[in-house]
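sanity check this record:

:::
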Amino acid sequence: MSKESLEGLALDTLMVHGGHHPDPTTRALAMPIYQTATYGFDTVDDMNSSWDRTGLVYTREGSPTVYALEEKLALLEGGEAALCTGSGMGAICSTLLSVLKRGDHLLCSEEVFSHTGVFVREFLEQKMGVDVSCANFRDVESVMQNIRANTAVLYTETPSNPSLGLVNIREVARIAKDNDCLFIVDSTFAPPPIQRALDEGADLVIHSLTKYINGHGDTLGGVVIGPKAIIENIHFPGMPCFTGACLSPFNAWLIMRGMMTLDMRVRKHCENALAVAQFLEAHPLVDLVNYPALPSHPQHELCQRQMHGMGGGIVSFWLKKNIGGMTPEEANKKLLDATRLMTIATSLGEGCTLIQIEHSGMIRIAVGLENKEDLLRDLTQAFDALTR
């Protein structure tokens, strides 16, 4: 369907029809996998002109399958353009390497994915000469107080991983605009239909496609979405190309397939996660539960507006201390080892529920798509095992 014919359609309809066009050669309705490393031409002039016209010369530079996915992803977030990469970290690194230079100041949230924190500190700051500092992005005043004359980029996640802190995107976007800064949001934990960061005022939004957007736990991918001029600056001279962080046609095809059910999957993740969070909050062996859709969450009101009341699919919590004379580490391990339905693994957004212990000792559950009563029964028997 043409972009014009997609105007005004609901998100779940866009995820089915966006980026889908019958193959021009075979008229195949499903998007083909253009599984090739390179492209052939009849003449030298044809090859030279293709660099500017389509970019279809070498698959590291581009692929029709990847282009179709990028079109669908831009529609997902309401952006002008999208650029796919081989992983979520590929999107983060390619974006920051493209929009920052030596002497710029990057103001980064204190609550970001651990690998992001290592990259900005050990590479951007120590090796590239970017001035890096961190602030509490939950507190708008903290962001304002840490702006400098050379601040070029504000970077945050919302919700954060794994503490599920929220950032008021509208308020931080206002600060960024007033100070001529680029505002980048990693929204991996809250893809549409939960929130649309660009609608809230962010300049760029990043997703790890590996997680909810693909949804099947069978591929890696990343994307940055935003204004065409900025996306082209990230694409050319081509950080994903230079670093090799490009997305393969096959992985792009898998992600496109997963996106057709994104809306219904995400809503089911949220429904199940809320049930798990409510169970945990009521359990006598649980000390604290982090879940934005719970009224007890300190930013519950922001969740209601910015995330349309959906808390996402991640629940994190702390056990009470001195359960059965065990250390916190022993109790955490015993609880996880006692689960039968949940899988001890790292990641999120898959059909099956994953559970892990964070470095801080917090337990994180990436709630899946199972029947919620089955999940609650699994948690019940695992908690019972703690006291035996």
